[in-house]
Amino acid sequence: MRRTATFRRSLGVLGLVGALAAVGCGSSDDDSSSTSAAAGSTGTTAAAPETRDVKFMLEWAANASQIWAIAGKEEGYFARNGIDPEFQFPDDSATPIKALQAGRTDFGLQLSIGPAIAKGEGAGIKVIGTLELLDVGLMVQSDEISDFQELKGKTVGVGSSTYNEVCFERTLQTQGMTKDDVKIVDPGFNLVPPLLAGKFAGVNGSHYEAAIALAKEPDKPIRILSFAPDSCPYDPIQILTTDKMIEENPELVRSFLRGIAESLAWSMDDPRAAAAIWAERYPDLDPRSDLAQWEASAPTFCGPYSEREGLLYSDPDQYRQLIQLAADAEAIDAPYPVEDLMTNEFLPEPKITEPCANDRYRDEPLAQVTG
């Protein structure tokens, strides 16, 4: 079975504080905590409407990049929109799409190119929002490797997925190289320690949390050599539902997305408070590491269009490129209309732009670690 995940979510098992000690992924039980009414964005308290239970499958086992979801529910941002989400955690990165098709969940997060392939194969699913648009590439130690040319003859860890394999090969081609110029191995999910130990010249994935945290430590010079945008589209974390849900419950879809956007906006604005809620929910995880990861990853929820189009916007051109990538990799028979795959119809109105329209998210950290 082809794995379609990038390796960003593997950071849930990495400690980014001190010596980068390993951290467990935490419980995978469904979240069943209660939700209370939240204060409105104007600071006034409003009675929460009656809520509707929905099942929401996240993209991976419990990890710090999901802080916004747990904290947003606890703070009442879903409830104020009439949603009571039951969080589910998949046992594999391909599970959310399968669960949607089987009716085991109502909404899901899916990594990478999986939705483009599934839709091309006839799946009745649709992308209703883009949570993140990730700049995937190779993480390297910048005092050892400064560009792709310096990878010749070296061992590189490239994850086994359509996106990773195609984009790495395309990037090598832009440098006048082929896969024969490097030794490629599948690094699995334990990425950063082998890189720091010198076992790989580079490891594949969108590791902003780790790279940003490590970039602040002078003895660990980390950088990402990016695939996007020259060789490949950015790699999205997508919010999915079924065609049936859209047809039968369009207002529920709209309310669900507003609940996500408001939860995300609050968690980005007050990352320490959000991380504290997470730490209470998952006391077996390392709270210092999770806070460091969340503060590092929060800017990645601001895509190139977020300041203008708001949180969760999906860029049609990016998705056209993903569809074409799937066709080029022969994962689907042929490209198809982008409207079959994604829509922005259900995004919050007015647009939620403020979290990305400030200096922290304009200037923060991505440029420090990509090149």
From TrEMBL:
Signal sequence segment: 1-21
Which pathway does the protein contribute to? Cofactor biosynthesis; thiamine diphosphate biosynthesis
Superkingdom of the organism of origin: Bacteria
Q: What InterPro entries would the database entry show?
A: NMT1/THI5, SsuA/THI5
Q: Which residues form the SsuA/THI5-like domain?
A: 69-274
Reaction catalysis annotation: N(6)-(pyridoxal phosphate)-L-lysyl-[4-amino-5-hydroxymethyl-2-methylpyrimidine phosphate synthase] + L-histidyl-[4-amino-5-hydroxymethyl-2-methylpyrimidine phosphate synthase] + 2 Fe(3+) + 4 H2O = L-lysyl-[4-amino-5-hydroxymethyl-2-methylpyrimidine phosphate synthase] + (2S)-2-amino-5-hydroxy-4-oxopentanoyl-[4-amino-5-hydroxymethyl-2-methylpyrimidine phosphate synthase] + 4-amino-2-methyl-5-(phosphooxymethyl)pyrimidine + 3-oxopropanoate + 2 Fe(2+) + 2 H(+)
Q: Which UniProt keywords apply?
A: Iron, Metal-binding, Pyridoxal phosphate, Signal, Thiamine biosynthesis, Transferase
The protein's assembly and partners: Homodimer.
Q: Record's family?
A: Belongs to the NMT1/THI5 family.
User: What does this gene product do?
Assistant: Responsible for the formation of the pyrimidine heterocycle in the thiamine biosynthesis pathway. Catalyzes the formation of hydroxymethylpyrimidine phosphate (HMP-P) from histidine and pyridoxal phosphate (PLP). The protein uses PLP and the active site histidine to form HMP-P, generating an inactive enzyme. The enzyme can only undergo a single turnover, which suggests it is a suicide enzyme.
What's the name of the protein? Thiamine pyrimidine synthase
